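Q: Sequence in, structure out?
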Amino acid sequence: VQLQASGGGLVQAGGSLRLSCAACGGTFSSYSMGWFRQAPGKEREFVASLTWSGSSTEYSDAVKGRFTISRDNAQKMVYLQMNSLKPEDTAVYYCAAGAGYYRAVDSLYNYWGQGTLVTVSS
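A: Exactly. Output:
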């Protein structure tokens, strides 16, 4: 599976962005999906994940209530709607696909996109 993340950009604090991740190859609907992020000088951290059907989701405490992960299996897309953005959300955001439901365990995900940069100004 190849993943291509997009939708990043510069936004003011309090604003919104929607990230997209397009998949090609493989059976997209059989993979769980996750979003992770890495801020400058920091380790990669979990943001959100959902099962192959989208029926179960998880969020980090840092984004819970502000971000929403969703997917469209017919279009082979996964999304991350980000609202009420804060400067501390500034990072490169990565989408990942997993053969199992790996939740926050990034080392278990099988495929990774190239990342898209989100910058939130104060």
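The chain has a mean pLDDT of 96.
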